[in-house]
Specification:
InterPro entries: LOR, LOR_sf, Tubby-like_C. The protein contains 1 helix and 12 strands, in the order ββββββββββββα. It has 162 residues and is mainly beta. It has one domain: LURP1-related (Porin, Beta Barrel), CATH 2.40.160. A 12-stranded antiparallel β-barrel has the order 1-2-3-4-5-6-7-8-9-10-11-12. A hairpin with a 4-residue loop joins strand 9 and strand 10. The protein is globular, with a radius of gyration of 15 Å.
């Protein structure tokens, strides 16, 4: 399933709908203003908070956390010693690790688990400016988590000036 995301949604305090490939509202991104750290909530159309994205404070390396039901779900960090491409590691609380690599700032990258593609992020085939697609390839992959990972990685890459 493909989801269309606009780059402009990342401003804190802004709200924006993410649409599915049929044009239906699938997720609401709610930017929380006046918080000590960057905070975004990804909500279902009915308003239920699916995941919360937070900038991790006092971290040696740039990191963001993804929470579900106010409990940690995953931590996203830039991978050390990645010479060829932008590379991030997503560590889920159960110890599972996802790899994110590609041209992050160009919005051309993939999320993989153990070498298997879970989601592909691309703006290549879109004509709408400042929009990219998150194509969740596997049916059993958590779409809200894949979108959250894409948002975190792009946000961290932009702050890091990659």
């Amino acid at each position: 399933m493909k989801y269309l995301v606009r780059d402009k949604i990342f401003a804190i305090g802004d709200d924006y709908w993410i649409e599915d490939e049929s044009g239906r509202q699938a997720f609401l991104v709610d930017g929380k203003a006046l918080r000590l750290r960057d905070t975004l909530e990804l909500k279902a159309p009915d308003g239920q908070v699916l995941v919360t994205l937070r900038e991790k404070l006092l971290s040696l390396r740039d990191a963001m956390t993804i929470e579900r039901d106010e409990r940690p779900l995953a931590t996203v960090r830039r991978k050390r010693l990645s010479l060829l491409r932008n590379h991030y590691r997503v560590t889920l609380v159960d110890g599972t690790e996802l790899d994110v690599s590609g041209r992050i700032l160009d919005r051309e990258f993939a999320v993989e688990y153990d070498g298997e593609l879970l989601a592909h992020i691309s703006r290549r085939w879109l004509r709408v400016r400042d929009t990219y697609a998150v194509d969740v390839v596997r049916d059993d992959a958590d779409a809200s988590l894949m979108i959250a990972v894409a948002v975190c990685v792009i946000r961290m890459a932009e702050r890091g000036g990659e």
